Amino acid sequence: MELAVAPLYHARWTEKIEQEFVGAILKTRSDLKSEAFDYTIQCMRNAVDDCLITDYEWAMASVNLPDPDDNHVLAAAIAGRCDVIVTNNLKDFPANALPKGIEALSPDDFLLNLHDLAPNRTATAVMSIQERLADRTIDGILKTYEAQGLTRTVEVLRKNEFLW
Fold first, then answer.
1. Domain check: are 72 and 100 in the same one?
2. pLDDT tens digits for 52-80?
3. Range of 30's domain?
């Protein structure tokens, strides 16, 4: 989100994607309640202009992914004129099932691409996160990113002198 606010890209999503995002977190965090995310989602919506994709159902008829439960994501990308679907679930978004002009990237690849385009702005976004989380160091934030599978992005960020 910090990179969307930077703005290094225009984040777009649907209410259904928000629900899936919350559901995925709740699977691993039984100590949280879904209501706790209402504020977070509102902040995300407020931070990014024109983030919510609505009226995407018309595109559902042209979508046929390996997992039909993911069809709404591609339909939203089509309706929202998105170039990239960022997902850890690449197997369900094969290139041959995506229309021309839309690709699926892992979060690590997506962030590496953004860093290649604007290394100092990417580093500034990481520093901005660290400033808000005063109890966390840059190294601590990067370790969290590594644990989330952003290993190549962290490797590149660690070499960015702007952070240190």
1. yes
2. 999 999 999 999 999 999 999 999 999 99
3. 2-106
